Model the fold of this input.
Amino acid sequence: MIVLVPAYRPGDRLPPLVAELTAALPGVCVLVVDDGSGPAADGVLAAARDRGATVLRRRANRGKGVVLRTGFRYAATRHGGHDVVCVDADGQHDVPDVCRVVERMRVTGAATLGVRRFDGQVPARSRFGNTATRLAFRLATGRDVRDTQTGLRAYPAGLLPWLATVPGDRFEYEMNVLLGAARVGLPIEQVDIATRYHAGNSGSHFSALADSVRIYRPLLGVAAARLRDGSPAGDEPLAPARRGDGSTVVGMPPPRRGEVASVSRSRRDFR
Done:
């Protein structure tokens, strides 16, 4: 198992996160990919390396999408056949929740999201942003993904070559992954998680204006394509199936005529 941690100007929570992950997931490789943080991050990244992480550093800041693709390519070439779980560097995700998301992915063989509940002390911009993007995604695809911007995502090894080709250099990359999965008919598992917001989520590098535009642009494109093809949103069941353990799965529609699903759906032995 590879834990991929995209980082930009990481804080002091990163080294203990690496230690907690390696303790909870024996044999795991924690891969930190730094997005051009510069010399100011030297100490934190060195401490993460001392706790067992492999640290890759980009010279310039290119965005979360670039960093994630870098990590997926590295995992596929250096650790072929191993699954990947993505975890935010700011300590938002509880390690037990990371383990539950990994377990759900291993059991089902499907991409799995750790979805936040957005109750309690949640920053207003996070609550509003998720509500808006959840509705937009549902209108564009006919599917209910309850947290489209979660950073906690587990992927089986067979998806890594495809993930390395998904477009989008910044936060829109994660939206493009979901839209691509919907287009080619991949199921998406969803597991409820708790989220810890530190200092009102002040460590987030999400730009409310620029990144929102980048996220909504592909959503609008998909919605327009559905209308153009005569397949308006809402023509398929919207509600995800809920299991007894509280997790859900969104069954994606099959590929449209002429589309080729370029990703693996095999249920092989995951590592």
